[in-house]
Amino acid sequence: MPAAPPAPRHAAVEVLLTDLYAAPVKVDAWERLEPWAVARVTLGGANVPRTVIVKWARASPAESRTELTALRFLSGDLGLALTPCVIAADLSAGLVVMEDLAPRTALDHLLRRDGAAAHVDRLAAFARARGELSAATVGRADTYYARQTALGPIDPAADQGTRFARLRDEAYGHAAALGTPITGPAANELGDALAELTDPGPFLALTNGDAETNNILLNESGPTDARLIDFEHAGYTHALIDAVCLYVPGPAWMSVGDPVATGLADHYRRALARGVPEAEDDRRYGFGLAAACISWAIVRLQRFALLDTRSPGDPSRPQLIETLEAAARTAETHRALPHLTSWARRTADLLRRRWSGGDQEFTGRQTAFPPYTPRG
Fold first, then answer.
1. What InterPro entries has UniProt attached to this entry (predicted)?
2. pLDDT tens for residues 340-374?
3. The domain 105-368: what is its CATH number?
4. I need a labelling partner for 160 at 20 to 30 A (CA). Which of 31, 51, 62, 250 fits?
5. Which residues make beta-bridge pairs with 55?
6. Burial call 190-218: b when 16+ CB within 10 Å, e when fewer
């Protein structure tokens, strides 16, 4: 039997939906969708959905405010059919009740189960959805933040800027500790990259804050009918940050493959260009993408001290090497940030030599890991 939810949360959902439907609503079953702060709830009552999804704030009430703001902004203000619809919310209890998108399934589950080759169409839908989200939300930041301000205080400039406020100092510290300091022309390029990401101009768009394959639900067969989820850390930032997941592995994967060869890069860019014409400019697009990918690799480099304590052969070690090299390949493809690219390759080589005693393959070639190989 599924574990019962905490009594206050259970009661809050019943009260919330009873008020909404002006008739008694009971929670018949509560299925926690581990490890997330999410449950599929079966309801009893007249003229109510049989099941809904309930999400609650794990760390701060601001998470629920942000989720509610983003979903109502996208589906209500923009009429965008890319996310679940909100049914009700109780921000004092940190609860948001949404439509149940079943039988759609998370893409990362399908990739782990079947491999990337079996889900080429779904990966394409994922790439398009990321571009469509950005294209639909450019130029609408004022509307989004007005809606969010109505629910609680927020500083839009700080919300956009804090995503990179600490990155510069942390990058220098991590690189120096590893023995590959970022200096000279590479330091100048890092400054240029962070300036691009902090002030994205026409590329300013809404992100859910976690553009990974676990946060898109789609059908296993027939039309993909994709829906993006997980907006508790949403906010406006550089659109191309949402493209990084197509080029550089996130926390779950050893490699994501070559998005140019698979066509995912084109699916994303065409979708983005419908709302951001500047995405057609090879130089500007390439620089922004390279800046986003290299910055992500630097963020992941902060894990070095932890990974260095792990046993030889731990899969997180070659993952970090691949992250640096994938970011470097992307920058090279777009002829951007050559000095930072050289730094990333030197750092990857240093890590490979340092960790080469393990039983993993440290070739540095993308073919060492098939696309979307789980980290384990």
1. Kinase-like_dom_sf
2. 999 999 999 999 999 986 444 445 444 478 999 99
3. 3.90.1200
4. 250
5. 38, 96
6. beebbebbbebeebbbbbbbbbbbbbbbb
Secondary structure of residue 49 in the 3-state scheme: coil
- Beta pairing, strands 105-106 & 86-90: unpaired
148 and 250 Cβ atoms separated by less than 8 Å:
no
DSSP code per residue over 313-369: T-THHHHHHHHHHHHHHHHHHTT--HHHHHHHHHHHHHHHHHTTTSSS-----GGGS
CB half-sphere exposure, 134, CA atoms < 13 A: 31
Specify the CATH number of the domain 7-99.
3.30.200.20
**Strand (E) or helix (H) holding 305:** helix 304-307
Angle at 115 (CA atoms; ends 110, 117), nearest 5 degrees:
110
CA–CA gap between residue 376 and residue 365 (Å, rounded): 20
The whole-number average pLDDT for the span 127-146 is 97
Report the C-alpha gap between 69 and 77 in whole angstroms: 10
Quick one: residue 43, left, alpha or beta (phi over 0 = left, psi -120 to 50 = alpha)? Answer: beta
Q: How many CB atoms lie within 10 A of CB 364?
A: 16
Count CB neighbours of 63 within 10 A: 20
- Domain parsing of the chain, residue ranges: 7-99, 105-368
Spatial separation of the C-alpha atoms in residues 67 and 53, rounded to whole Å? 13
